[in-house]
Amino acid sequence: MKITFLGANHEVTGSCTLLEAAGRRFLIDCGMEQGKNVYENQPIPVAPGEIDWVLATHAHIDHTGMLPLLVRNGFRGKIYATNPTVELCGIMLRDSAHIQEFEAEWKNRKGQRSGAEPVEPMYTVQDAEAAMKLFVGKAYEQRFQLAPGIEARFVDVGHLLGSASIELWITEGETTTKLVFSGDIGNLDQPIIKDPAYIKEADYAFMESTYGDRSHGPKPDYVSELTKILQRTFDRGGNVVIPSFAVGRTQEMLYFIREIKEKGLVKGHGNFPVYIDSPLAIEATRIFKDTDPDCFDADTRALLEKGIDPITFPGLRVTVTSDESRMINADRVPKVILSASGMCEAGRIRHHLKHNLWRPECTILFVGYQAVGTLGRTLLEGATTVKLFGEPIEVQAELCQLTGMSGHADREGLLRWVNSFEQKPKRVFVMHGEDETEDHFVQTLTEQGFTACAPYNGAQWAIGAEGAVCLQEGMRVRIEHKANEGQSRAASADCDFACRAKIPRAAGIYRRERAGEHARVQQRIDRTVRLRRRQRGGQCDIAARGRAHGIGARSRPGSILGFTLRKTAFAALMKRSVAACQSHAQQHSSEQWRIFYLLGLHLHPSGFDFWRGRRYNKESCILSFMPPLRLEYS
Fold first, then answer.
1. What digits encode the pLDDT tens for the residues 412-469?
2. Which of 70, 199, 380, 405 is the most exposed place for a label (fewest CB within 10 A)?
3. What does 479-528 look like in DSSP terms, one character per residue?
4. Is it true that the peptide bond before 504 is cis, omega within 30 degrees of 0?
5. What DSSP string describes 326-390?
6. What residues in the chain have per-residue pLDDT under 50?
7. Which neighbouring-strand residues pair with 169?
8. Rounded distance between C-alpha atoms, residue 495 and residue 488, angstroms
9. Helix (H, G, I), strand (E, B) or coil at 172
10. How confident is the model at residue 199, as a pLDDT?
């Protein structure tokens, strides 16, 4: 048999492995890569129509997200998974397809203005629907035949509802070889779902290594820790925003919050509201409730037997529409907001971060793994400013992380899984980990007497009676990334026409983003810089003038006032002179006109023109305008 490694090799996401055995070709997982791409990926070396079937370990998009594309390109075989995984894939793949269509539609709207070629979505909802028709659900511990000489079985691995390790028995000639693919190995003592089941025999093991170089440490009291965070945040008058994976982590957080409310552990805030602001999470929660109780752990089954819903409580609210989502931040009552995605790369969580990151009274609570290159990782690594929807957002909120709150086993859990084999496998292939983590875990396994390696993307191995032989080394070509790519990835693509002004700063930079105007732009830059240098020693102190006009009242002392002027489809075009802005400012005391007055006073001498938009969003300080200008003070 031949095995080709095609995803999550020296990377954490995008799991995909091709097996060619007993005259058949099939995949273990077909996932989408998320976060930063480290190594160049190799395409599947056979046509999708030549693949006989796919075995899916669990429903997360980094293990199943490319299945609709596989179907779009001609795959017509079966997709085998556990019954809960089939149900969860039904909502997750459709949701992923909606995202692909939305992004393509947005790019095409933008491209029409620049004359770019139309963009096709990676796949559509129709492709996702076609993929779902190919799914075949199987029960745990049920051994079934895939083809003559190939049998499989799903074993609960405790990572997510429906997650599984896969046992494969492959007979070629007179030799039967047993392969075990770990899938994502679960952490111990997670709420709702069972602990991982351990497998006793394997000739070859293929295992994940997400936390192969670290320990979660002593298990914290999640309820107590969460209570402390809620209490101090609510006492400050802020919100607790939780970027949470829609499937799995959201339901675990509901489980903890139900206990906190039931015991009245948060004092002085009554029946505080909890919002699930993710249509996907709402659907996933419904699936959890409808799942066979045998899939749950003993504590959850005990609650169900008493008639207690473990993930429902008073004050729980769900928001489906965009309008309902926007209203959450309009309400100043301290609240908990659970929203996806868990790594802050997409979804409604980005809007909630935009409205809460800059508020020092709020808390952003991370409760899951944050991959390299994601906005969540950028924040945890200490970013002071991030870009969201074209706006620079200052990070003033408290950032917290529930340590050990992971669906993945740590180093000790991984070693417990691999040491459960009664006899050591002939070779352990390490996958699904960051570059250095995989190498570190291979060294750990080697020290414990295992024969282990960590193949790169595109590596091919042959397994036969003589053992495992490497036929082809994988690609070790790294993809170069800019130093600040983590933050640039955090910027939404709809900010190309954004215009940012930061006050106070000395030098001005003005750029009109149209070809052929560079000379005039440079003259304005030079003129502005000279002006600002003169103003440094005079009475035109921008910061003092800003305070005199009451600007920045909600910012801490010494902080920078940031606001954005950007193009929207609803902006009313009206060019106003600076004098008109000043005149209007004298008649109105509202904040937006104080901002206009300040800008007009200081920008007019340097030759800047100004436009007044008619739409004003006080919450985010957004003033709509039409010309594609970008203003930066730095």
1. 999 999 999 999 999 999 999 999 999 999 999 999 999 999 999 999 999 998 899 9
2. 380
3. PP--TTHHHHHHS-GGGTT-EEEEES-SSEEEEE-STT-HHHHHHHHHHH
4. yes
5. HHHHH--S--EEEES-TTSSSSTHHHHHHHHTT-TT-EEEE-S---TTSHHHHHHTT-SEEEETT
6. 483-519, 521, 536-634
7. 151, 178
8. 11
9. strand
10. 98
Residues 451, 456, 458, 463, Cα dihedral to 10°: 0
Which pTM was predicted? 0.72
Nearest-angstrom CA–CA distance, 540 and 601: 10
Tokens of 94: 């459709």
Q: To the nearest 10°, the Cα dihedral for 531, 534, 538, 544?
A: 50
Orientation angle between helical segments 591-603 and 578-587, nearest 10 degrees: 150
Tokens (6 digits) for 426? 């002939």
In what order do the strands lie in the sheet containing 467-472?
A: 135-138, 78-82, 53-55, 24-30, 16-21, 2-7, 460-464, 467-472
| Alpha-carbon span 70 to 216, nearest angstrom | 36
Q: How far apart are CA 181 and CA 157, in angstroms?
A: 11
- Rounded distance between C-alpha atoms, residue 598 and residue 593, angstroms: 8
Question: Read out DSSP for 539-576?
Answer: S--HHHHHHHTTTTTTSPTTPPEEEEEE--TT----EE
Q: Looking at the DSSP assignment, which residues form a beta bridge with residue 291? A: none
Burial of 109 (0-12, 13-18, 19+ CB in 10 A): exposed
Other C-beta atoms lying within 10 Å of the C-beta of residue 497? 19
Q: Which of 243, 239, 234 is nearest to 266 (CA)?
A: 234
Helices 83-114 and 279-290, packing angle to 10 deg: 170
Which one-letter DSSP state was computed for residue 311? T
CA 633/CA 623 separation, integer angstroms: 17
Give the Cα separation of 405 and 401 in Å (integer): 8
Which tokens hold the place of 516? 């052929």
3-state SS record for 261-292: HHHCCCCCCCCCCEEECCHHHHHHHHHHHHCC
pLDDT tens per residue, range 472-529: 999 888 877 554 444 443 333 223 222 222 222 222 322 333 333 444 545 555 555 5
Work out the end-to-end distance of the chain between its first and last CA atoms, rounded to an integer number of angstroms.
60
A 10 A CB-CB count for 336 gives 26
Annotate 514-547 with b (16+ C-beta within 10 A) or e (fewer).
eeeeeeeeeebbebbeebbeeeeeeeeebeebbe
